[in-house]
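Hi R.,

Here's the chain you asked about this morning:
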Amino acid sequence: MRQTLFYPGEGGYWVVECPSLPGCVSQGKTKEEAVENIKDAIEGYIAALVQDGFPVPPENFEALQLCASIEPRLNEIECDPGFRRMMDRSAADFRAGRTVSHAEVRRRYPKSARGK
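And the predicted structure, written out as tokens:
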């Protein structure tokens, strides 16, 4: 038995993937169709691994559904002047076609502006 994740895709389709089998993704017009399609995809994925002599990855995916509202924290972050400066600078870099390394982000912005 494999765990799967469903989420809405483009054009009203449902996308479904199997995290324990990297790249095993399918879709369907309905959730029911997506379930049937991912079953076929999982069977084919595992059959191809076995046929080619590769090990079948174990099921190792765990999920935790969080039911907490993050709206108050998002409002607090978005109103922070340091956060606004960081986002404005990032948008300007993006529009200018500049890429910025993780190290450069850390240098430019103190921890407080990154929400830590």
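The radius of gyration is 21 Å.

Let me know if you need anything else.
M.
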